[in-house]
Amino acid sequence: MSRILSTITTLALSAVALYATRKSYIAITNLRRYEERSEKAAKHSETAARELYKTRATQGSSAAAIALSLISSFALCFRTLSGSATSSTAKYGVPAFNIVAIAAAFVHNRNYWKAKPKVPFVGGINEGIEKSKEIRQSFVILGSAWVLFGVLHLIGG
């Protein structure tokens, strides 16, 4: 693949990963507004404690997959811009690993949040639920970008 095309794809990947990072940050911030209340409820209710744990785990797995993608895309971008040769592992392994991580986080996020109804008069939680949907949408875009990156390297060598 030409250096110009490789640079464009890695820059696009980095931009999409930054977008997903922003969405994740907003969702976590919205949910953290209710952290204190949730922790108090968790002390008195096993269900509340379980939900708090699952919420944290879901947001954590999403953030980890996004961070991995962001770091990977930046590393590939800097490597491309510096003119360094990209190894087969970087060309094929990094996209494959990111696709798996994103898919796992997507499924984890979807399985938890799909059954969560919006709560009347609790805007922050509702916004957190909505942002989680947006994170899943950004996972689709990010995963597709990694697939495109991998395919372009397969075709272009």
- Main β-sheet description: none
Structural class: mainly alpha
Number of helices: 5
Helix content: over 70%
Mean pLDDT: 83
Cα gyration radius (Å) = 18 Å
Q: What does the overall shape look like?
A: elongated
Give the H and E element order: HHHHH
Number of strands: 0
The low-pLDDT segments are: none
Distance between the termini: 6 Å
Task: Write structural notes for this entry.
This protein has helices spanning 3-32, 35-44, 46-81, 88-113, 123-156. The longest helix is centred in the middle third of the chain and has 36 residues, at 46-81. The protein is elongated, with a radius of gyration of 18 Å. Helix 2 crosses helix 3 (46-81), helix 3 packs parallel to helix 5 and helix 4 (88-113) packs antiparallel against helix 5. By secondary structure, the chain is mainly alpha-helical. 87% of the residues lie in helices and 0% in strands.
Topology:
Elements: H1 3-32, H2 35-44, H3 46-81, H4 88-113, H5 123-156
Briefly characterize the structure.
By secondary structure, the chain is mostly helical. Helix content is 87%, strand content 0%.
